[in-house]
Sequence to fold (166 residues):
Amino acid sequence: MSPILFWLFSALMLGFGAAVILNRNPVASALSLVVSFMGLSALYFGLDAYFIGVIQVLVYAGAVMVLFLFIIMLLDLKTEKSRRLNAVAFIGGGAIVLAFVGILVNVLGRSPFKQPFPAFEHAGTTEAVDIGMKLFSEYNLPFQAIGVLILVATIGVVVLSKRELN
Fold:
């Protein structure tokens, strides 16, 4: 991947990721998250991980975001009201961001990866087969745990959105 494209898609992800947090409107935040997912997908395509890039678009930018938008509209969330800025929280959050950026610059400065990564080599099978075998052998328990977590979250949304009938 060209370094210009890498930085373009990275900036796109970071910019729209910040927009997710800074937008007061929950629908605008969700749509910003979709654009951020698209930037991540483009980075996967640049790493020759086409399967993961397509799954990123189909599953996250498609299905999960449709679910988020459905929940936002089902719960009828309004735009957040403007409130007074808490100076202590703002300064503390800024200090944490500066510390994170400092650590990130330090780690990237010492990184041995000064040249681009080589292309991903397949062992005679397709990428989907490799991912599936690894997912259902080494990562079976976390995969099952995520499935249960999503089920619990879905049940929680249904319970929260249930209206009292009087």
The chain is about 75% helix and 0% strand. Helices lie at 3-22, 26-46, 50-75, 87-109, 127-137, 140-161.
